[in-house]
Amino acid sequence: MAHVIFYEKPGCSGNAKQKKILEAAGHTVEARDLLSKSWLRMELLSFFAGRPVAEWFNRNSPAVKSGEIVPEECDEATALALLQKHPLLIRRPLLEVDGVRHAGFEVAAIDAWIGLGPHLPDEDMEACQHGREGHVCQGHDHDHPCGHDR
Asked: How far does Cα 150 stand from its chain's mean position?
């Protein structure tokens, strides 16, 4: 089984479910705070290798949902600058196993990569696990395009 470094938004119920799926498959999970890390450009880029720029973004981010940020209109340099400045925009979780990096929790891709066992969830594991009213910004600087009042 694998040791998974799991960059998450602390307190996110979706990330909590994802970690449980990994642990149920026998993996160990080392959770790290995605929002408090100072991301280097090349480090971030390594999680998105081979993916179109638009897939680097958290589609559940209020700034993306509101249209304030349109991932399809971003080039690589703009996207990396936005993600570094506003980590809430980063597609999560970011996963690392033995130096191999991956962004997002696409069940089939992760199962093919490290295995998730016989009982794969059939729900979208990247979808927001709460309604807009239940979303709380916490644990990060509020100088970002979050879209919520302080």
From this structure: 23
Q: Which residues contact 62 (CB under 8 A, 6 or more apart)?
A: 68, 135, 145, 146, 147, 148
Architecture of domain 3-134: 3-Layer(aba) Sandwich (3.40)
Average pLDDT over residues 60-72: 96
Domain ranges of the chain: 3-134
- Taking the C-alpha atoms of residue 43 and residue 80, their distance in angstroms, rounded to an integer, is 10
**DSSP helix/strand/coil, 118:** coil
Q: Which residues are catalytic?
A: 12
Strands 3-8 and 94-97: antiparallel
Q: Per-residue pLDDT tens for 80-109?
A: 999 999 999 999 999 999 999 999 999 999
Contact criterion met (CB below 8 Å) for 44 and 90: yes
Nearest CA to 137 among 50, 62, 74? 62
